[in-house]
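Hi again,

Forgot to attach this to my earlier email, sorry! This is the prediction with beta-D-glucopyranose bound. I've pasted everything inline since the attachment limit keeps bouncing my files.
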Amino acid sequence: MIYVNIEELVKSLSVEEKIRLLVGAGLSVKVPGAAGETRAVEHLNIPSIVLSDGPAGVRIHPVRFGDKNTYYATAFPNEVTLSSTWSIELVERIGRAIGVEAREYGIDVMLAPGLNMYRVPLCGRNFEYFSEDPLLAGRLAAAYVRGVQSAGVGATLKHFVVNEQETNRRMVDVIVSERALREIYLRAFEIAIEESEPWAVMGAYNKLYGRYCVQNEWLLTKVLRGDLKFNGLIMTDWFAGDNPVEQIKAGIDLIMPGDDNTVQILLDAYRRGELDEKTIEVRAKKILELILKTPRYKGYTPSNKPDLDSHAKIAYEAAIEGVVLLKNNDVLPIPEGSRVAVFGKGSYLTVKGGLGSGDTHPRYTISIADGLREKSFRIYEELDKIYRDTVMVKWLGFDAISWFIHARENAMKEGNTYQLSWILTDFIESVAVYLTTLFISEDFLSDEVIEKAARESDVALITISRISSEGFDRKPVKGDFYLRDDEYKLIDKVSKIFHRYGKKVIVILNIPGPIEIISWRDLVDAILVIWLPGQEAGRVVADLLMGRATPSGKLPLTWPKELYEIPAMRIFPGEPRDNPQKAVYEEGIYIGYRYYDTFAIEPAYEFGYGLSYTSFEYRELLVAREKDAIIVKLRVRNSGGYPGKEVVQVYVRAPRGRIEKPFQELKGFHKTKLLNPGEEEEITINIPLKYLASFNGTKWIIEQGVYEIRVGASSRDIRLTTMITIESDICFNTNWSTTHC
Ligand code: BGC
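C-alpha cells for the complex follow:
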C-alpha cells in the first residue's frame, strides 16, 4: 500500500512506534557494508531503509558470505578532484551515476556529499569536501545532490557544521564569529539547500559555541530549519553527541546508527514528560516523508548489477577535468608512444582515494604505470621491474600487496567468499598502501640505474603520493605536508641526471590536498596534480600526458607557500594543541584567498589557478543589474592550438563601507564547453544580489556604492573588469526577508 497522506499515517502510529522510528536500527543487515538502516513498522508496511556512504561512491562490501556474486562499486574521483573540475554539469553526472549505482545495490539514501570548508590543508577529510570558498562548494554540492536524487535516491549534506578538523572531532568546541559562520560555513549549506533540496542533512560530531551540533537547538531549529529553510530530514553523525533526548528536542529527527538502549532512553524521557508527543510526532513525520520517497518503499527491486563500465567512463571524464596543471616548462603534451622512465612508489601503487567512510571498493584501480602502458607509452621496463619485483615486495619484508590481492581473488574464485577474509585483506591492503606511502624510502636507486634510464628513455615521470583518512588530521611533518628527504633526493637526482641528457622531468602529485612545493618545484619541468582521481587514475594521466585531453582543472583552494603563513595554523588543531578542547576560528572570514588577497600575501598558487595546453581570450564584458541579480555576459575564445575548456571566474570587489570586506570574493563561475582552436562561447553568469551582502551581527547588508566586477582565469589573473553601482543600502533579516536598514 502506498500512503499519500502522511498526517494520517503518523496518526496511525503509537507513541512507542514513533519513538522507535527516531532511532536507527544499527549497521545495515540488508546490504552488508552499508552504514545504517532505519526501523520498519511491519504492520503498516513501512520498510527499514538503507543508508550508505559516501562521497566517492557507494561503500558496501563487494563480497558476501555464501554468495558467488560480487558487489563492486565504482571508485569515482574524490570530491577534491570533482571540485577542481569547476563543472556543475560533470558533478551532476557523477552524482547521477552514484545515485543509480546506489539504487541498483539497494541503497535508499547516500551519506554524501561532504560540505565542510578547507580551513587548513591539514584537515584529514578535506578530500571529502569541496573548497575553501562557499559558493564553489555549495554550487558543486548542489549539482552532486541533484544528480544523486535524479536517480530516486536521497543525498545527505554533511557535516553540519564547522567540522573542519578530525583531531578530537567528537568533542572539540568550535568558536567562530557569527559573521564568519554565516558568510562562509553556513553559506555553503545554504546554497546547496536552495539549489538542490537534499533529502537529508547530517549533524556534525563537534560542538559549536559549547553545545554539540546535534544538540544545538539554535543551530538546528532556528538556523537550519528557519534561516536556511531546510525541509528534509536531519540525522546525527554516527554516535555523535551524548544525550539523545536533547538531540530530539534540539531538532534531530533520526539518531544514527541507533540501538535499543537509545529507544529506551527516549521512551523513558517521554514517560517522565521530558519529551512531548508533539515533538516526537514532528520528527517521526520527517522520517516517514523521507521513507515514502525511497526506492525500497516504492517496491523497486535492485538489480545488483549497475552498469559499472559506463560509470567507469564517467569517473574517467571527471578525473580528467579535475587534474590541475601547475607548471609546464615546454614539455607537455609529450608525443604518443614516448619512452617514459617511471619513478616513485605512487606510480605503481597509485592512491585512488582517501580512507575511512569515504573509501570505496572498486573492481580495479589502474595504476599510473599500467595506464601509461595500456595507452601505448613505452615504459622503461628495467625500472618498472625494479619497482614491481623488488621494491614493493621487499620493502614490506614480504610480498604483502600481491599476497593480499591473491588471497582475495582466490577466496572469490572458490566461491566460498568469506566476507570476513575480504574485510581483513582489504583492510590490511589499505594499511599496507598507507604504510608504503608513509614510510618506505624512495631513495634506493643507484645513480647508474637512473643514468641508464635517462639514456634509454625520452622523459622521466615521478609520482609523489599521500593518503589521508577520516579520524586523523594530516601532519605538518616530513612525509606528510613536507617531502621526506628521500623523496626530495629522488626528485633532485632524477632531475639533475635527466637534464644532463637534455631530457625533461614531470611530477605527478597523487595527493588529498596541498603539500609543500616551493623547495622543489624549480627542479622539475612540469607538475600535474591528479589529487585522488578514483579507479581510472592511470588512464587519466596517460591521456593528459599525450594531449588526448587538455588539462582544464583549477585549484579549489589556495596553495600555500608555507603552512604557517595560514592564519588558522597559528593554533590548529586547537587549544591545548596536544589535546584540543576548543578550536577558535580566530581568522574569522579570512580563510583561503580571502586572507591572501586582503593582506597581499603571495601564495605558491592562487585560488582558481590552473594551466592549459591552449590559451583563452576574454572579451566584451557586459554587466547589467536586474531586481534580484547581477547579470554578467562575456565572450571567451580559444586562442591557442589545442581544443580545451576554460573556467571563467567572476569576483566582486565591494566598495569601502562601514563593514570590513575581503579584497574580493568569488560570486560566479562557468566552465565552457570544449572549444576548438578559434571557437568561442558566449557566457552568461547570474549573481544573486543577496550574495553581495555581509552579516553585521544581526542582519545582512548590501552597502551602497560602486562594486567592481572582476572576470578572470584565476583569482589573480583578472582579464576584464567593470563597475556597477548600488544606489542605496539593502538589508535582509537572517531568513532573507527584506528589512529596514
Ligand atoms: C562519518 C560520516 C559517515 C558515518 C557513517 C562517520 O564516522 O563521520 O561521514 O557517513 O560515519 O559511516
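The first helix runs from residue 6 to 11. The pocket of beta-D-glucopyranose is lined by residues 35, 53-54, 111, 158, 237-238, 357 (CB under 6 Å).

That should be everything now.

G.
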